[in-house]
Amino acid sequence: MLNKISEYIRLNRLLRKNGRYIVGLSGGADSVALLRVLLELGYSVEAAHCNFHLRGSESFSDEEFAKALCGRLGVPFHVIHFDTRDYAELHHESIEMAARELRYAYFAQLKRDIEADGICVAHHRDDNVETVLINLLRGTGIRGLNGMRPRNGDILRPLLCVSRKDVLDYLRSRNQPYVVDSSNLKDDVIRNKIRLRILPMLAEINPAVYDNIQRTADNIADATAVYMEAIADARRRCMRDGSILISAIKSESVLFEILRDFGFSSQQVRQVWDIVTANRMSDEVVSGQIFMSAGHELLVNRGELHIQPRDTPMKPVRIPELGTYLFNIGERAENIRRLRIVENEIQPGYIPSHERFHVSLDAAKVKFPVVLRPVVNGDRFIPFGMKGSRLVSDFLTDLKRSVFEKRRQMVLVDASGSIVWVVGERPANPYCITKTTKKTLEISLIDSM
Predict the structure, then answer these.
(1) How far apart (Å, rounded) are the C-alpha atoms in residues 142 and 131?
(2) What is the rounded distance in angstroms from the CA atom of residue 283 to the CA atom of residue 239?
(3) Which value, to the nearest 10 degrees, does the dihedral of the CA atoms of residues 201, 204, 209, 211 take?
(4) Contact present, 357 and 446 (Cβ < 8 Å)
(5) pTM for the whole thing?
(6) Which of 92, 262, 396, 439 could form a disulfide linkage to 296, CB 3.0–4.6 angstroms apart?
């Protein structure tokens, strides 16, 4: 077994002999075997134990076992305690997901603190087979059928080449005790059901089920490398400035791989793909639907899919007098804007600004304070060059602005409550410069500092 793991480490370039590595040590058979194997192979390791406070006295006995083992082996021992149930409730997650997030966040922090070269975890071949089946049951793309890989960033899995039986045989050969997590013996979660019930039944049909599923996952991993190159090429062809050209999307798989990077689920991707397909088969273009992920939102807009980060709408900005003002149109730092308002005497040959984000108005007609705010339902103004008023929403529709663009649209309103400028689009006619204007207000909106 040692030779097999050593060769696996070499082939996958997982560890360096002069490196230092963290071993996630629960006290169970797999992690104990991993710790001892790496020591026997001559690697420098430190152990990290997480007490999740989920199994009463068992949690503390596991911690004591892990600490005592490291003491006997001369391995530095790190431990952390988590209130996992409170974390799971606060974040609306399962206990299993909460424990996983806490564990890996701690490992990453510890790696930085002790300047380790990587984090070794004890997943073996049987764990990987279970993961492939779980992904298959839940529905997955091609990457989900890869299972766990030897390296995932800083996470290293030196035991993926050996089975659970190999691990137990190794521990028996070293007379090495370990603790048993009683929760792993209950078939109350999907992984335990697969481990305790489904895989034994599959093994009755074909005793080589573990090897066959693992070999299939490895084959798919090889194919995935080629697949991802094709996806990268497709992404370059169909994406521009945060938008996806519907006509360039050739398959649901391409759409899935693009949208998963923005946090959209497979079910949402399927719904979007249905719309894409409907648009191709009908003369009536479906448009306007919005889909939300945790961090982004997607808009189906005519022949494109627009994607943007989710953000809170800007708050109205009150501007009491002339000057330069900073404000934020959202939570992110890149959303800071600068508004500058100056008053000038009309000079001979003066020409009002025609720049999109610089407007020239009659200073005598604009009453301070003015307010810069998002457009709201019912907003009306008289566009420059017109006599009658229009809804701002209708005005923007005529300009073919998308739902996202309409939602981001700002207006400048003076003390009378009237819109003086639909920012970046059109000034209001009553406030524009005429032959009788003596002073101008020059208003500029600058995108950033």
Answers:
(1) 13
(2) 23
(3) 130
(4) yes
(5) 0.65
(6) 262
SS3 assignment, position 181: coil
DSSP-derived secondary structure letter, 428: B
The residues pairing with 443 across neighbouring beta strands, listed in sequence order, are 341, 359
Contact 392, 322 (CB under 8 A): no
What are the residues facing 240 on neighbouring strands? 243
E strand spans, 310-369: 317-319, 323-328, 336-345, 358-362
113: nearest Cα among 75, 80, 149: 80
- Residue 371: which H helix or E strand, with range? strand 370-374
Biggest distance spanned by C-alpha atoms of the chain? 100
Question: Per the structure block, which two tokens stand in for 390?
Answer: 């229009």
DSSP string for residues in 384-440: TT-SS-EEHHHHHHHTT--HHHHHH-EEEE-TTS-EEEETTTEEBGGGS--TT--EE
Report the b/e string of 95-120 with b at 16+ CB within 10 A: beebbebbbbebbeebbeeeebbbbb
How far is 77 from 74, CA to CA, in rounded Å?
Answer: 9
Could you list the beta-strand ranges (E) of 25-73.
Answer: 44-51
Residues with Cβ < 8 Å from 193, sequence gap 6 or more?
Answer: 187
Tell me how far apart the alpha carbons of residues 362 and 442 are, in angstroms, rounded to a whole number.
9
Task: Give the number of other CB atoms < 10 A from CB of residue 207.
Answer: 10
The pair of three-digit structure tokens given for residue 267, joined into one six-digit string:
């079910």
- Give the pLDDT confidence of 324-353 residue by residue, as tens digits: 988 877 655 456 788 999 999 998 889 999
Q: Which two tokens stand for residue 178?
A: 């370990």
Cα–Cα distance measured from residue 246 to residue 158, given in angstroms and rounded to the nearest whole number: 43
pLDDT tens track for 209-267: 999 999 999 999 889 888 888 888 888 888 877 788 877 888 888 888 888 888 888 88
